[in-house]
Amino acid sequence: MKFKKTIIAAVLLLAAGGAGYAYWTMNAAPKEPPYLTAPVSRGNVRQVVSSTGTLQAVVTVQVGTQVSGTIEKLNADFNSKVKAGQVVAQLNQDKFKASVDQAKANVLSAQATHARNKVTAADTLRTLERNRELRKRDVMAQSELDASQTAYDAAMAQLQVSQAQISQAQAALNQTTVDLNNTVIKSPVDGLVISRNVDVGQTVAASLSAPTLFSIANDLTRMEVHTNVDEADVGNIREGQDVTFTVDAHAQRRFRGKVHQVRNAPQVVQSVVTYIAVVRINNKELLLKPGMTANVQFLVAQKEDTLTIPNIALRFRPSEEKDAAQDLLKQEQQRVGGRISQRRTSRGGGSGTGGGEGRRVRDVKVYVLKDGKAQPLDVKVGITDGSKTEVVEGPLDENAKVIIGLGSTGTQAQGGVTNPFQAQPPRFR
């Protein structure tokens, strides 16, 4: 019995000693600062303006008809390759041939009338000359001579009328011949038929405007992207600028092009102003098709092998400074009356990565750990790609740790800050 009590006492003593040692160890260990940090790294930064646009051929010709009628033949279909001057369709010609025959008959009739009037004019001329001789001999009254003169003048006038009628009939014949020729529809360019809008037996009416029968792309190996650029970003777009874009049909490929034109005509939709930028691209593989939606990125600026910090480090503020900043922000929002938020709501279209401030060198404040406390540092930063920003000047070296947030364990973000949900970038062509 005494031995058992001794064992129990020893166990209790060991347990108490272990608990005391653990308590002493926990209190003696230095506490890690409750901050999340990320290293300053060296890499490349690409600032872009993002937008969307539509692919189309450089030259697309709408082939129509200038006369109304019924489609009798179709010699081209979707994806048909055609040459300039090739017949692609034909209207029924029966009515037009009849009109040509009628016009020819009218010309012959006018010519016959003119010939008759020439005979009449010649006869009245002979009568007039004979009556003049008789008048000189004083064997004819002056009134009879005047009558013959009037008859001659009328015959000559009628001769001119018949000559004009011949010209009129000939013009009508030319018009009906042109209409007959227009029943044969020819391709004006070499190219590929993108769309066919009619079928055999369909009636087309050209009373107000020429109906479109075919759309023919001149050359699909060279294409354009027409994209709407927001007015806030159009100042960063210029001719010759490098552009990359993707399409949903080939999501893992990134295509390249150059800005061909920035049009000055504004596009205004619900008070949102955009400008059309035309991007020329090479499509030798014919992977791109007209009408595809392109997700475009205009390369505004690029820096290689430069110091960078995560953008989240630019937004971090200690709790005491954050409270003061929030108070100032509330006062500013009340002063401007919400105009900033209203502008953001009304604006659409493309946007530049990093916003307007990312396009110039600016002074910012970041925080580093010093003696377990957040120490502010003033640095100058440049362009940004939306996740990291270039460090232009400041007391930061590569692999230095900047604070990016608060944490309970002081865990450091190794190798920079990444988004686990961010899609992998597509490979370049």
What letter string, H or E per element, gives the SSE order? HEEEEEEHHEEEEEEEEEHHHEEEEEE
Low-confidence stretches: 338-350, 354-358, 409-429
Give the helix level as a range of percent. Answer: 25-40%
**Share of residues in strands:** 35-45%
Question: Which structural class should the secondary elements be placed in?
Answer: alpha+beta
Biggest sheet, spatial arrangement of strands: 2-11-14-13-12-15
Cα separation of the termini = 87 Å
Approximate shape: elongated
**Largest sheet at a glance?**
6 strands, antiparallel, barrel
Q: How many distinct beta strands?
A: 21
Q: Could you please describe the fold and organization of this structure?
A:
With 429 residues, this protein is α+β, with helices and mostly antiparallel strands. It has four domains: 35-45 and 304-417, no CATH class; 51-58 and 216-303, Elongation Factor Tu (Ef-tu), domain 3; 61-88 and 186-214, OB fold (Dihydrolipoamide Acetyltransferase, E2P); 93-182, Helix Hairpins. The two termini are 87 Å apart. The chain has helices spanning 2-28, 94-136, 142-182, 311-315, 319-336, 339-346; strands spanning 35-39, 41-57, 60-64, 69-74, 81-82, 87-91, 184-186, 191-196, 203-204, 212-217, 222-230, 242-247, 250-269, 272-282, 293-310, 351-352, 362-370, 373-384, 388-393, 401-406, 427-428. Strand 13 and strand 14 form a beta hairpin. The longest helix is centred in the N-terminal third of the chain and has 43 residues, at 94-136. Helix 2 (94-136) runs antiparallel to helix 3. It is elongated and about 180 Å long. The strands form four sheets. Strands 2-11-14-13-12-15 form a six-stranded antiparallel barrel. A four-stranded antiparallel beta sheet has the order 3-10-8-5, with no helix packed on it.
